[in-house]
Amino acid sequence: MMWLAWRQFRAAAYVVSGFLVALGIAYLITGPHLLHVYDTVVKTCAAKGDCNSVMSTFQDDDGFLHHFGNVLLLIPALLGMFWGAPLVAREMESGTFRLAWTQSVTRQRWFLTRVALVVVAAVVATGLFSLMVTWWSSPFDAFNFAPFANFEVRDIAPVGYAIFAVMLGVCAGVLIRRTVFAMGATLVAFTVVRVSIGHWVRPRFASPLHLTQVFQLPFTRGGTVKLGGGLRPGD
User: Closest Cα to residue 125, out of 88, 91, 86, 166?
Assistant: First the structure.
């Protein structure tokens, strides 16, 4: 059963593997240079008094590859569309599931084997892509110091999105049983969920923090001003 599932899936796996290899080569060629520039030039620009020009030049370095990392926003959706949605829908639409179900393999094993292969492949592919992007973009992330701005395209977050997208595609295929319609439904549903979480759910995961702090204005004679908030200094 695993052999059959692999034969049906191997073409898509080869395409994604080639893409990852090409991207990995590009990152390996340019990544060490970015790390070297950041360690030797950007970190020491304050002492040399030339930070403005250094920062402008550094942000422009390999701009295409820097913005290309945002493709991680789309990769889970693409995997759900092209890997998850056709997985069952294509079998139902063409009627080939009947042949598989009349063999010695049970329906449960047939379904779980196919889904497990695609989910594992999605985890590996997205994980490798995220690992390369996170490593290559680390100088820019340290330079911009915005740890939450790139949450969705760094570390383990894209892997979770990929698993969700693939399983969403599989569910759409099972319910709709038409490959093209299932792919469209997967894209729409995944986009709605991502936008909803990013704009309305995630900002409410935790209450905003407030700080009360006393400071002295430099142009006054001992006057103080209070900033409103609910935390004591040192909390």
Answer: 166
Whole-structure pTM value:
0.75
* pLDDT tens figures, 40-53: 767 766 556 566 66
Residue 233 included in any domain: no
Hunting for tokens 């969920």 — which residue is that? 193
Query: Residue holding tokens 């796996």?
Result: 13
d(CA 97, CA 190): 27
Side chain identity at residue 162, one-letter code = A
User: Is residue 232 domain-resident?
Assistant: no
Residue 136 covered by a domain: yes
- The count of other CB atoms within 10 Å of the CB of residue 71 is 14
In a domain, 193, yes or no: yes
C-alpha dist (Å) from residue 210 to 31, 194, 228, 229 = 39, 28, 7, 4
How far apart CA 117 and CA 109 sit, in angstroms, is: 12
* Domain that includes residue 61, residue range: 2-227
d(CA 131, CA 134): 5
Q: Are 223 and 214 in contact (CB under 8 A)?
A: no
List 214's β-bridge partners, or say none.
226
